[in-house]
Amino acid sequence: MNGFKNSAVYQIYVKSFCDSNGDGIGDLNGIRSKLSYIKSLGVDYIWLTPFFPSPMVDNGYDVSDYTAVNPMFGTMADCEAMIAEADELGMGFMFDMVFNHTSSEHEWFKKALSGDPKYMDYYIFRDSVDGKAPTDWIASFGGPAWDYVESLDKWYLHLFDPKQPDLNWENPEVREELKNVIRFWKDKGVKGFRFDVLNLISKPASFDLPAGPAHRFCKDGWHVHEFIREMVTDTGLEDMVTVGEMASTTLDNCIRYSNPRNHELSMCFSFHHLKVDYRNGDKWALMPPDLVSLRSLFKAWQEEMEKGGGWNAVFWDNHDQPRVVSRFGDEGKYWKQSAKMLATFIHLLRGTPYIYQGEELGMTNAHFASIDQYRDVEAINYFHILLDRGETEEDALKVLGERARDNGRTPMQWTAGKNAGFSEAEPWIGLPDNYGRINVEAEESDPDSILNYYRELTRLRKESSIIAEGGIRFLDSGNEKVFAYERLLAKDRMVVVCNFSAEEEKIADILPEGRVVCGNYADPPLHSDKLRPYEAVAVEALQS
Ligand code: GLC
Ligand code: CA
């Protein structure tokens, strides 16, 4: 299971990657046409967001059939060809298993709604309590987490949209059904899996619980480790790469999820570092990033996961996040430096780095000016919630402009041409107007581009065992805007320093004498007590 330590993963949001048939929607044949580009990034695995049949209420995270291809994205033959072609290039696919919930259009849920007791037990149905829902819980996209079904006189639980009913993992038949899904895709040659909100699958034994956000009461539940271990061992996933998306989780749980001794997963995604700009923990309340907590979160998760024998998935961007260069970097004057600094920080950590499509170009937030440009159910719901809270339309749009998931879902920018080369037709979602400058074609021809810098980072991980396997300690740079860590392997030592500020910053004398491994300024300074704006540099110490 340790074969992935020098690997990197590329994440594709299928709907927005490449449209091969001119309907404005990305598809599997589009991905096939770009496999050599992906290979050129030096990645080993490609995680695809769900492309299974779905009413697309949550863009495919509402699956109505786990073992088929949504015609919107292609056919099973396209999928098989895609897997085979990637395999020839030495890359493997990780498919996205959305096992916490199905779509309400899944045949299991339809049978449940018709009153079939077998299928009602696939979901979480409960009687009213005092004429009301069993708990006063809020779902993740806003609104109550229970929906009432009149014909059954019962409520069902949904941690996300009402059209995403939660599965009942306590039922062994449900677990068998899901294992069969894994077996199906394994037989097709898939090399790994990403599991959607996996730490939410084990629900409380009783719903006699207080009001609040539903996921708070369902995260890292009482049977979650058992359920994961059973799924992994019964389907032979231990030899494959697996990553669990863990919502509002804890370090201790992530050590258990990812320590090979426990036979659970290869690694975990956690999200605490992506909440440091939430005012009072509210995603929809803006605040500049708190760099002190950002650093201390990384320090804790990096050092403690190592001590506990766990393994992190390390990342800034995905399809649920705004773009990191817009968030912790600078879209303007220091666009290039800040994008490279952020990449350096992540790629030299201990863990498996994930690159989200377009991150390697320094793609920015969408800059949508009107609510009509948004597509995501969460963004649209929260726009109205913000208005109900008394915010002006202008302020609500400003919040969405920084927080909406659609910021990370705009089409991949391939060229400066029509629709950024993503599609012949009008894309399903708009593009930021900077694609004339920020695109694959332009960056291919610039040796100093963000794209080529990412290639260098994945190559370094392949070549250097200290990056792939070394231990990690955070260092005190003497400046809270400059993050520093050292990687250690036997007698080797590498120091990484990253300036998260747009100013020149003074630092303590922590850079050793040695060889510059990489940096985002030509001619990085050594033994200097200053870093330039957003400067990042890694130095391998001379052996003493
Ligand atoms: C995960 C997915 C997100 C989806 C949610 C519900 O967080 O990454 O896109 O909306 O789960 O499935
Ligand atoms: Ca298409």
Cα separation of the termini: 34 Å
Low-confidence stretches: none
* Strands in their spatial order, largest beta sheet: 11-10-8-3-2-1-15-14
What does the radius of gyration come to? 23 Å
Helix content: 25-40%
The first-level CATH class of the domain at 100-189 and 197-241 is given as Alpha Beta
Measured by DSSP, the beta-strand proportion falls in 15-25%
Write a compact overview of the structure shown:
29% of the residues lie in helices and 17% in strands.
Task: List its traits.
544 residues; alpha/beta; Oligo-1,6-glucosidase, domain 2; eight-stranded parallel β-sheet; five-stranded antiparallel β-sheet; globular; binds calcium ion
Structure description:
It is a single chain. The protein has 544 residues and is α/β, with parallel strands linked by helices. Among the domains are: 100-189 and 197-241, Oligo-1,6-glucosidase, Domain 2 (Oligo-1,6-glucosidase, domain 2, Alpha-Beta Complex); 468-541, Sandwich (Immunoglobulin-like), CATH 2.60.40.1180. It is 29% helix and 17% strand. The chain has 17 helices and 22 strands. The protein has helices spanning 28-33, 35-40, 76-88, 107-113, 117-120, 172-187, 214-218, 224-234, 251-258, 291-307, 324-327, 335-347, 377-388, 393-403, 440-444, 450-463, 465-469, and strands at 9-12, 45-48, 92-97, 125-126, 137-138, 146-149, 154-157, 192-195, 212-213, 241-245, 267-269, 278-279, 282-286, 313-314, 352-356, 471-475, 482-489, 492-499, 505-506, 514-519, 530-531, 536-541. The strands form six sheets. It has an eight-stranded parallel sheet. Strands 16-17-18-22-20 form a five-stranded antiparallel sheet. Strand 17 and strand 18 (492-499) form a beta hairpin. The radius of gyration is 23 Å and the shape is globular. 51% of the residues are buried. The model has no long low-confidence stretch (mean pLDDT 97). The protein binds alpha-D-glucopyranose and calcium ion. Calcium ion binds next to loops.
